[in-house]
Amino acid sequence: MIRKIQLLIAFILVCYMAVAQQIQSPNSQLTLTFQVKEGVPYYSLSYKDKVVIKPSSLGIELFNDELGLMNGFTLAKSETSTFDQTWKPVWGEYKEIRNHYNELTVVLNQDKASRHIVLRFRLFNDGLGFRYEFPEQPKLSYMVIKEERTQFAMTGDHKAFWIPGDFDTQEYDYTESKLSEIRGLMKSAITPNASYTPFSPTGVQTSLMMKSDEGLYINLHEAALVDYSCMHLELDDKNFVFESFLTPDVQGKKGYLLAPCTSPWRTVIVSDKATDILQSTLTLNLNEPCKIEDTSWIKPVKYIGVWWEMITGKSTWAYTDAPSVKLETFDYTKEKPNGKHGANNDKVKAYIDFAAQNGFSQVLVEGWNIGWEDWFGKSKDYVFDFLTPYPDFDLKMLQAYAQSKGVRLMMHHETSSSVRNYERHMDKAYQFMADNGYNAVKSGYVGNIIPRGEYHYGQWMVNHYLYAVKKAVDYKIMVNAHEAVRPTGLCRTYPNMIGNESARGTEYEAFGGSKPFHTTILPFTRLIGGPMDYTPGIFEMDVSKLNPENHSHVNSTLARQLALYVTMYSPLQMAADLPENYMRFADAFQFIKDVAVDWDDSRALAAEPGDYITIARKAKGTNNWFVGTTVDENGYLSNLKFDFLDEGRQYLATIYADAPEAHYKTNPQAYTIRKVLVTSKSVLIQKCAPGGGYAISIIPITDKAQTKGLKTLK
Description:
The protein is α+β, with helices and mostly antiparallel strands.
């Protein structure tokens, strides 16, 4: 009898394991299916009855563990639940964000090893997030990851927008191709002279944007990357299956875990509308709520800076032309200045004056501190002290002058990737900022990491970047990290992480230029994880006019540069060009002065990755709207409906557009400005030049005198 009962229980368990577990999104358009087959966990995903992810295996391979967390699993338990809550970001694209999902939690027993893991799936209306969880238990405590084996099995040879799977940089131009073409295009996609560390001829980085032949837009990324290595994707280009490939350390190990712990969320955002991808809040919702109790000191920033002239080569970060500097003993007072140092008192005062006159709250100054003479490429441990200014930068005087004008200086910490040196100085550097009136820092990680052998996106550096942000909270400092790991929504948890670069920004327009379609892709890729300090606003496209030895060209029209303040979301926006160039085009510069940096609402009105993007945003606490459109090298005829405006209300729209003869290469500064009246029923047909776009400010009419002589756009 006992034997029969045991067999019956075993039969029931086998049947239970064979039955697929399913949940649907709150709107029932997405369906997740989970199943254990022959000891291996699988998941699949469909959208409106179309397959998005075919059955894909899950698992993690461990060092010194023969079984690993790959197979031999049985389904011990599954639970479903629903969560629905609205939260308010400290800053962002929306005043409120709804966090609404259905959840499936499965417990998997690995009987042979006497241990268990948890897989947690959250299905939102805009996509799927799932992660591995490792409860504390006697037989699973300390783990060393050999590789994570998460798969994403595509349904076909999708169009993809990708950059190479580099462990040290994301600063690549995107390549548009079929999945099957990645292998053949990889060599040409790698930036010449890049310190590229290839792991596969088909390896790409996230966030990866794709479009299927059926018209589905699919985005693969990760959320809440904490104490774990950054995920890349390796493609089996015969079967169109992606598998996770974690950034290794110098020993080739992919991560060190101590239970209880979790992996980051693996994310799949999907829709049949490209605009839905741009409006997804899934990545933010998968991160923990804000951990900073008092956020009153965290404020969006519009800034200018002594930067572009160094990037273009007009001036230098270094004070002298000394071939080498040993910081502990070098005496700058005995050295002859090179005469090209950008961060000098007179220039910084002029920038402060310009900021005060034009409504900018901060002035970034790079090259203010000693050590720039041989900061790059020497693998020096002690490069900067982050405390000592050059002789021609009177920090106390300049701070007092800025304060008298109602402006702050923004700190700059270039670490030259000597991370050990930065951490040894960090408390003193942040305290120095607090003592001298700084509340925001742009940090940089150019070069190979010290400790030597670590990569920018490995677990060790992932932990450092977050350590710097959390440490900054103690000093009420906002952080904008460049060359750091790509964001994964952690700005929800730590909103003092007010910006990141982590992609190919405007500086590359002075390094030979970026592809004209670059800004039509970034919102679908890099910006999925969080805002980018893209540093737009370049009005002089011919870089040789700043530096005759630099023959780069900014591949954009002037009108498109204005649009980027709307399409490239960030609470930290720079007007990157020189003040004199803004004065040459003062009427166009007015848009940069007017555009907001914090929003109550955002609407993606039209989009196609690689072709065009149109976005409208409502400024925080106002009824003012701003619209931006950025397009690729083919140009675009925009059909803009103003139905996002309040019904029955009239608005003044100022349209900054490409002139008929404009072209990003041959006539980039040709633009027009016109004022019209609009209502929610108005429609604008606007031609965008190749590499161009347009920007619009929309202000409610409060006085009939504002309408005098203006026509209403029908």
